[in-house]
Specification:
Layout lengths: L10 H30 L7 H14 L16 H11 L9 H21 L2 H13 L1 H4 L8 H20 L3 H17 L6 H26 L1
Helix pairs in contact: 1-4, 1-5, 2-3, 4-5, 4-7, 7-8, 7-9
C-alpha cells in the first residue's frame, strides 16, 4: 500500500511552523541582546538620562521611595520598572540598565510577531532585524531611558489590538487596556500609539460599512 500524500495544514505542519516562529523570535531576540551588551557593560553613563536614572535606581536600592525621595520627570510606572530591573539584575554596577536591554529585546521580538502576522516570515524577520539594528532605537534600549520600555509597551499594544480585532473578547480587551495604560504611564509622549490602535480596531467597522454600501448600491 502506498503512503498517503501529506496534506498541507496538518498538525505536523502547524507544529513545524510554530517551531520556526519560535526559532526566528529567539534568534532575533538573541541578536538584539548581543548588540546591546556593550552599552549594558559600559562603565560610565552614556547619556544624560542614563546617568540620572541609574542614580535613581541606586537611590531606590538604598531605600528611596519613587516620587517622594526620588524625582522623575517620566510617568509613574517608569521608576518602579527601573527598580524591578535593577532587582532582577542582582543590584550591581550594570543592573540599572536591565530594563533598557529587556525592553529592546521585547520590542524586537514583538515587532517580528506583528510583522509576520501582517505579511509573511521574511517580512517578520526583516522588520525584527531593522528594529534590532536601528541606531536610534539602540540608543534608548542600551542606555537607560524611558523611551525604551514605552516603545516596547507601544509595540505590544499594537499586537494586542490586532488580536482584539481578529477575535474580540473580554480578556483581550483587558490586556489591551492594561498595555495602553502602561504606555501612557511610562512616557506620555508615546500617546500617538492610540491612533494606531484606533485605526486597527476601526478597520472591521469600516470594512463592514463599505460592504453595506456596495450591497445597497447593487439593489
Amino acid at each position: 500500500m502506498k503512503d498517503s500524500p501529506s496534506i498541507p495544514g496538518t498538525q505536523q505542519d502547524r507544529s513545524g511552523e510554530s517551531r520556526g516562529r519560535l526559532l526566528d523570535a529567539f534568534l532575533l531576540g538573541l541578536a538584539a541582546l548581543v548588540l546591546r551588551l556593550p552599552a549594558y557593560f559600559a562603565e560610565r553613563g552614556l547619556t544624560f538620562d542614563d546617568g540620572v536614572f541609574s542614580l535613581s535606581a541606586i537611590a531606590m536600592r538604598n531605600g528611596g521611595v519613587p516620587f517622594r525621595d526620588v524625582f522623575s520627570s517620566q510617568g509613574p510606572l517608569f521608576l518602579p520598572l527601573v527598580w524591578l530591573g535593577d532587582l532582577l539584575g542582582g543590584r550591581n554596577l550594570d543592573s540599572t540598565r536591565v530594563l533598557a536591554v529587556a525592553s529592546g529585546v521585547t520590542a524586537v521580538v514583538v515587532t517580528y510577531v506583528v510583522a509576520r502576522r501582517c505579511s509573511d516570515r521574511l517580512g517578520g524577520i526583516l522588520a525584527g532585524a531593522l528594529v534590532a539594528t536601528s541606531g536610534a532605537f539602540m540608543w534608548v534600549t542600551g542606555p537607560l531611558a524611558a523611551d525604551g520600555p514605552a516603545l516596547a509597551f507601544a509595540i505590544t499594544t499594537v499586537w494586542l489590538s490586532l488580536r482584539m480585532r481578529d477575535r474580540p473578547g473580554t480578556l483581550r480587551a483587558v490586556l489591551l487596556g492594561l498595555a495602553t495604560g502602561a504606555v501612557l504611564c511610562t512616557k506620555s509622549l508615546e500617546a500617538p500609539v492610540l491612533v494606531v490602535v484606533g485605526l486597527v480596531l476601526a478597520a472591521p467597522v469600516a470594512s463592514a460599512a463599505r460592504r453595506g454600501r456596495v450591497a445597497w448600491s447593487a439593489l
